[in-house]
Amino acid sequence: MKILISADMEGATGVTWPEDVVPGASQWERCRHMFTSDVNAAALGFYDGGADQVLINEAHWTMRNLLLEKLDARAEMLTGRHKTLSMVEGVQHGDVDGIAFVGYHTGAGSEGVLAHTYLANSITGVWLNGIRASEGLLNAHVVAEYGVPVIMVTGDDLTCVDAAGYAPDAVTVAVKDHVSRYAAVCRTPARTAADIRAAAKEATALAVRRDPVLGGPYTVELEFDAEHLALAATVVPGAERCGERRVAYSSETMYEGIRTFKAVTTVVSAAVEEQYG
Question: What is the pLDDT of residue 274?
Answer without folding.
Answer: 87
